[in-house]
Design brief:
The structure holds two protein chains of two kinds.
Chain A: H1 12-15, H2 17-23, E1 27-35, E2 39-46, E3 52-62, H3 70-82, E4 93-101, E5 108-116, E6 120-121, H4 122-128, H5 135-154, E7 167-169, E8 175-177, H6 183-188, H7 204-207, H8 215-230, H9 240-251, H10 278-281, H11 287-296, H12 307-311, H13 314-317
Antiparallel strand pairs in A: 1-2, 2-3, 3-5, 4-5, 6-7, 7-8
Helix pairs in contact in A: 5-8, 8-11
Chain B: H1 2-17, H2 31-41, H3 46-62, H4 70-84, H5 91-102, H6 113-133, H7 142-154, H8 159-164, H9 167-178, H10 189-204
Helix pairs in contact in B: 2-3, 2-4, 2-5, 3-4, 4-5, 4-6, 5-6, 7-9, 7-10, 9-10
The chains are: A alpha+beta, B mainly alpha.
The structure holds adenosine-5'-triphosphate (ATP).
GO molecular function (chain B): cyclin-dependent protein serine/threonine kinase regulator activity
Pfam families (chain B): Cyclin_N (PF00134)
Protein name (chain B): Cyclin-Q
Chain lengths: ~325, ~220
């Protein structure tokens, strides 16, 4: 056995992986469905599955010295793992692929997340609704949303960005959560700065820049649940501070002792808004729904209901079937 | 029983003296040996190394063995397994260990052309592995099951009897060894664990105390 080093193993086969990505082309892009802050969603055809229509999200990931970042790899692997549960209120993730290392910019990888295609999002569903939604429809959609949120939380995933835009509504009126689980991937990545991120569903702790947890999703869901009743956003602020004003005008300015520490904004910079009665804003709302939403829109995240509390609320449990 | 253990020790010794020569091995014949050798040298946990072997088998269930360099893909599988199990390997270490295992006694690679071409190939292969696996990196863990089974069965043994027979070590070795075969993909984790445990008990000629009190011999640890 000689100890001299030989030339590296035939690398040309590996070097030319782009050829493989070409031949492995499985999806035909049709048109853009929408552009989010972190990626574009296309309608596409799955060429290997009888031309089934899918939704394909394209996300750019920066490659590091060590290749694909560990956090990205683990986030995507977790999404794949969650898929095994086939939760009815989570959009199906059918496939994950990537376009290989791009030749021009070799520090970047384009990932394709392939989802089942769902007719529309809640935003357009509410816009198209000819009139107020029926009480039963509101209840079942509320339950769907909270079930999805509870499922994510039980797998230690915080959605962080729940809003009608990424709640999808199937043709039979079921709601499914989309666009979650990639927080760390997004953090490290190429944000499209031109896209305005909506603040309307952000809880106070996020607007104030303090640490947050699963309770953020309960706040956002509360805003969405209210919107199901009125078909208009509950708290439509135009910037961070404006959003906080909107929130405090509704729930009242929190007491000094409730104000989190280490926040640059002081509580006194807001007028001493008295709390408003949510019933005035949500006319004809079911009293139990009102009580539920109030429990979700609580300033202190620790005092907010959890998603599981919500599911066990009489608004749902008194009204089978679920 | 004593004989068996001696034979095993002997084999171990012999293995150390005669490390495999990956360069002269035909095709993929030593691929999993390579994964295990490099994984151990990189200090990875046995379950992580086993995961890398599973990725390797899955990869070549889809891809043609003639199309890709065996050892580059093996190295990439170790990198992906490391990341997926939160035990990341530095690419530099992975490349050096791989290179040294292939070129025995060659010393560390200079940061020259050969190093960078190796490193680039491994980086590309890592993406390729992820692509073929579709990022499904959750592998069932027979190791965990085996540990559970071992722990529960251990309680049945008088302490000195348990210590005198290397049941745990033997069963784990069988489990690790089975990862050399692509057939590992065809069985469920708990079944693999029970099979390895049963085989270890048989080979060591150990019978489980109190087992004879069972009505038939369909105890859960016998297959
Ligand atoms: N599976 C799907 N089927 C149909 N439409 C979808 C699907 N997933 C997302 N969409 C739509 O694509 C659009 C963009 O979605 P995307 O998740 O990229 O962005 P977003 O939620 O607006 O933004 P962000 O990335 O900032 O959260 C949205 O209108 C959404 O409703």
């Amino acid at each position: 056995m000689s100890s001299s080093s030989t030339s590296p193993p035939s690398l040309n086969s590996i070097g030319d992986v782009n050829a493989l990505f070409q031949t492995a082309k499985k999806y035909e892009e049709l048109n853009v469905i929408g552009t989010g802050a972190y990626g574009t969603v296309y309608k596409a055809r799955d060429l290997h599955n009888g031309g089934q229509i899918v939704a394909m999200k394209k996300v750019k990931v920066a490659l590091t010295e060590d290749g694909i970042p560990l956090s990205t790899l683990r986030e995507i692997a977790l999404l794949r793992q969650l898929e095994a549960y086939r939760h009815p209120n989570i959009v199906r993730l059918l496939d994950v692929c990537h376009g290989g290392q791009s030749l021009e910019r070799d520090q970047q990888l384009v990932l394709f997340l392939v989802f089942e295609h769902v007719e529309q999002d809640l935003e357009s569903y509410l816009k198209r609704a000819p009139g107020p939604l029926s009480e039963n429809r509101i209840r079942s959609m509320s339950y769907d949303i909270l079930s999805g949120v509870d499922f994510l939380h039980s797998h230690r995933i915080v959605h962080r960005d729940l809003k009608p835009h990424n709640l999808l509504v199937t043709s039979s009126g079921r709601v499914k959560l989309a666009d979650f689980g990639l927080a760390k991937t997004y953090d490290t990545e190429m944000k499209l700065t031109s896209v305005v991120v909506t603040l309307w569903y952000r809880p106070p702790e996020v607007l104030l820049g303090v640490s947050y947890n699963t309770a953020v999703d309960v706040w956002s869901s509360g805003c969405v649940l209210a919107q199901l009743h009125t078909r208009a956003p509950l708290l439509a602020g135009s910037c961070d501070s404006e959003q906080l004003h909107c929130i405090f005008r509704l729930i009242g300015r929190p007491a000094k002792h409730e104000w989190p520490q280490n926040v640059s904004i002081v509580v006194d910079s807001f007028p001493d808004y008295p709390p408003q009665d949510l019933a005035d804003i949500l006319p004809r709302v079911h009293p139990q729904a009102l009580d539920l939403i109030k429990g979700m829109l609580v300033f202190d995240p620790a005092k907010r209901l959890t998603a599981l509390d919500c599911l066990e609320h009489p608004y749902f449990t008194d009204h089978a079937p679920h | 029983m004593k004989d068996v253990i001696d034979v095993m020790a002997l084999q171990n010794n012999r293995r150390e003296k005669r490390l495999p020569d990956y360069r002269s091995a035909p095709g993929h014949s030593l691929a999993t040996n390579f994964i295990f050798e490099c994984g151990i040298k990189l200090g990875l946990q046995p379950a992580t190394i086993a995961t890398a072997a599973i990725f390797y088998h899955k990869f070549f269930r889809e891809a043609d063995k003639n199309d890709y360099d065996c050892y580059v893909v093996c190295t990439a599988c170790l990198c992906v397994a490391g990341k997926s199990r939160d035990e990341p390997v530095r690419p530099r270490d992975a490349v050096n260990v791989a290179h040294n295992s292939i070129n025995r006694g060659a010393g560390p690679l200079e940061l020259g052309e050969e190093y960078w071409s190796w490193r680039g190939a491994v980086a590309q292969a890592e993406l390729l592995v992820l692509r073929l696996l579709g990022f499904s990196l959750d592998t069932p863990s027979p190791h965990k099951y085996l540990l559970h089974y071992l722990r529960s069965i251990q309680e049945w043994f008088p302490q000195d009897q348990w210590r005198s027979a290397p049941v745990a070590r033997t069963a784990m070795a069988f489990l690790q060894d089975f990862h050399h075969s692509p057939a590992i993909l065809d069985y469920r984790a708990p079944h693999l664990a029970v099979a390895c445990l049963t085989l270890a008990l048989h080979v060591l000629g150990v019978s489980v105390p109190l087992a004879s009190t069972l009505e038939d011999d369909s105890a859960w640890y016998s297959s």
